[in-house]
Amino acid sequence: MNTRQILLKIHLLVGCIAAPFLFIVGASGALVVFEEPYTDGVANASLTHVTPGTALLSLDAMRDSIRTAIPDAEVRAIGFHSEFRNTYAVSVITPKVVKLRTMYVDPWRGHIVGDETTARRPLRWAHTLHTRLLIDPDGKRIVGWTAVALVIISLSGLWLWWPGKIVTVRRSASNRRQIFELHNTLGALSWVFLLILGVTGVVVHWEDGSAAMIRTISDAALPAAQPKATQTCATQSLASLDVIRRNINDAAPGAYATSIQFGDKPTDYAMARMRFPEDKTPAGRTLVLADRCTGRVVWTLSTRTAPVQYRFTRMWNRSVHTGDLWGWPTRILALIVALLLPVMALTGPLIWWSRRANRARYNSTPGAVST
Question: Is 224 helix (H, G, I), strand (E, B) or coil?
Fold first, then answer.
């Protein structure tokens, strides 16, 4: 058995096993491209869009306004507006109801526009299907190994395609031959994108391992470890939300906070996720911790100064995988590549089945000579 025959068997075996998962991951990935803009900009426009006022309220004033509607409400997190959102998503908790409630709050006037019970999540299921197959934790592992299979299929497929170099589908050919030529043509035109999709998917799934490998190769330093919680606020009053936000903004000049989580206990640090203009991930990957008692920043991990392994795995790799690299042009490219996966996942097994059936007919024909 020569190299080509071995690769063909590997290509067929891996492809047929992974085909149903590639179909699901590809189809759901195409929907995920539209998840954020559709969910925030269309499905929940009544919750996320408000008419701007003359000046934004301070966070403390907004909290007081929320407490007027919900007595004793404590703010646990605030999601700030992005290009699709004008309201703030504010998570609150009350002493009587120990469960977070997310409210959509007008940042100009302070009134509650709606809450999570009225929000629509039309494509959330597609995101969970794409990343976990709707099952945990096994679904996530299956998706990770599906990415490995895509890498193997892309590389072996290129090797198998090269001798014939088929790049057209002839209308005059038989249906069986047309499926074969379609599979080859699409594979030739998209193999590099499918390979990138597979490699970036592998890194997303094994993010920590990938970061450790890059750090070993590049001899890069580890990012500074997050400090452990202290007791400084256990018996003191907390700093105002505006002081904490101001200090967080000062810690990463040029970035804006996309969310701040204030923790369940006074000893917990306030943690902000921030985004620089050059960041392609919607929420940003810069992290800042602030002491809730003093408002003082105690730790910062900036994407502008973070070690290469952090920037590669948490920023660049995810931006390439999701198509956020250059905005809508690369999102559309990601959409097209995602839609190719179901087509390849269907035509591949059809070719295998057709060959199997053809071989069975030869074997059942008296005097037939296998070629």
Answer: coil
The helix-helix angle for 138-161 and 124-132 (nearest 10°) equals 70
- ω into 137 cis (within 30 of 0): yes
Domain annotation covers residue 367 = no
Quick check: 75 and 241 in contact, CB under 8 A? yes
Tokens 């809508």 — which residue?
Answer: 328
Residues 92 and 162 in one domain: no
DSSP string, 42-81: IITHHHH-----SSPPPHHHHHHHHHHHSTT-EEEEEEPP
Alpha carbon distance 152, 166 (integer Å):
20
Check whether residue 8 and residue 147 sit in a common domain.
Answer: yes
**Does residue 316 lie in a domain region?**
no
Rounded distance between C-alpha atoms, residue 335 and residue 368, angstroms: 47
Residues 235, 240, 244, 246, Cα dihedral to 10°: -150
Domain count, the chain: 3
Half-sphere exposure for 135 (CA within 13 Å, toward CB): 6
Alpha-carbon gap, residue 334 to 299, rounded angstroms? 35
Which position has the token pair 């100064």?
Answer: 305
pTM above 0.85, yes or no: yes
Task: Quote the domain boundaries for residue 341.
Answer: 3-34+123-219+325-362
**Is residue 371 a part of any domain in this protein?**
no
Handedness of CA 109, 114, 115, 119 (dihedral sign): negative
* Residues 15, 352: Cα–Cα separation, whole Å: 10
Residues 82 and 127 in one domain: no
70-122: per-residue pLDDT in tens? 999 999 999 998 655 789 999 999 888 778 899 999 999 999 999 988 888 88
Tell me the pLDDT tens digit for each residue of 33-84.
998 888 887 888 999 999 988 899 999 999 999 999 999 999 999 999 865 5
Q: Is the domain of 100 the same as that of 210?
A: no
Do 40 and 48 touch, CB atoms closer than 8 A? Answer: yes
Helix axes 328-364, 3-32, angle to 10 degrees: 140
Q: Say yes or no: 210 and 288 in one domain.
A: no
